[in-house]
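Deliverable D4.2, example record:
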Amino acid sequence: MTTGTIRLYSTLTQKTETLEPIVPGKVSVYVCGLTTYDLAHAGHARTFTTTDVLVRHLRARGYDVTLVRNVTDVDDKILARAKERGEDPLALSSRMSDLCDAQLRTIGCADPTHEPRVSTSIPQIIALIETLIAKGSAYVAETPKGKDVYFAVRSFDGYGKLSHRNLDDLQSGARVEVGDLKRDPLDFALWKGETPDGWGWPSPWGNGRPGWHIECSAMAEQFLGPHFDVHVGGMDLMFPHHENEIAQSEAAWGPTFARYWVHLGFLNVDKEKMSKSLGNFVTIEDVLARNDPEALRYYFLGTHYRGPLQFEIEKLEGGRVIFPSVDEAERRVEYLYNTRDALVAAAGDAPAAVGNVLQGQAKIIDEAPARVLSALDKDLNTPQALAVIADLAKAANEVVVQIGKLKNNKAAESVARQLAARAVEALDGACKPLGLMQAPGEVFAKRARARRLKLRGLDASWIDAKVNERAAARGSKDFARADALRKELDALGIEVLDAGGESSWRVKA
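Output generated by the structure prediction step:
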């Protein structure tokens, strides 16, 4: 059973609308995937993380969600890159796609329901092109290489309704070459003819391969039908890609191709959109080499998806590069994990029961999961959701502090421990729709420690030896030596923790 009213801003209507799926209780979602000629960059990660939060939230509200994320593995850029490397185009594409999928899993994105590839969807693409030709919406043109097929833009009355542009003012878009073969400069390629020995597939028009735009329409229809609920993508895809998707799809199957169009703001570097064409991109791999994967996710969620997001890059001496905003996000994620660990320790084996102590904190804790869902109901307001979680963490830490002060009041202490147990459940529940804190605390700590040691060029066994040496110095009351060792470690970013006569250490963020 679905609960709550979810509202999304749709670029098509330029309004925030109540989500009303075509099939009650089920939501179909399509997101444009990677063109796999290179590694995925942080801008791609933002798109896929936002889509993941949308799907998680819909499922939390009781919807049965089908997510399709395509792979563009047939493209001129893939062919060019493969020739540079002396590699088979589909082998290059498969390798890049597998790397992207693994990285997205690492940052907490669940696998899509379906992940079709252009290379395995050629029959569906050809069938759609044939339909468009039969309806008079597309035409064949002879070229020196073979036969191209173009979509006749002016045959579709609604062209420009997504990008809200006047047809007469439009110029041909990205990846569309203006040439004498086309009847109109705005027409775009559905099929590109190729010589018999060129990279392509057999078709009614000879050897060739699909144009960029037609693939998404064919793959969406294959898995979601000719009409579905939500289409997601970056703002840079609105025109011409998404505009062309609508034109060819509705020309073939009638309106409405997608009910709601969700577009993300740009991820900027030095005030310019991060993109491979500009050469200013940072790969997901670059970020994960330095930061925890959840930190990258938290960083994305700190800004509303429709707004621009500045990706800060700072170059240090020696050529090292850091990402200050992601570093700060990592500190916040670590705080949440530390909060949870403190709650678990404070709760002990107490049940998550309702008591009558710390009422102010209890109210914040108990209401947090529902408040997160309510924030996400409002056009995926992730910054508001994170603010709720921050309030929850603050209240939870106050509970832990109070438990330490209730040692002489066993009854009150017991009730407070029950509240701590409730806070663990609340924190888990509040973070789940955002895809945060999905790893056990010890896993987060282990991967954070390993990564930070690597960045600092330190060895865990060497640190263990130093900590043991310090413990021996303390045992022999050589406190000057113990303090010197602590300072030596602290200068390297290693914090020594003393508790119950035992010493441990952690790597500072």
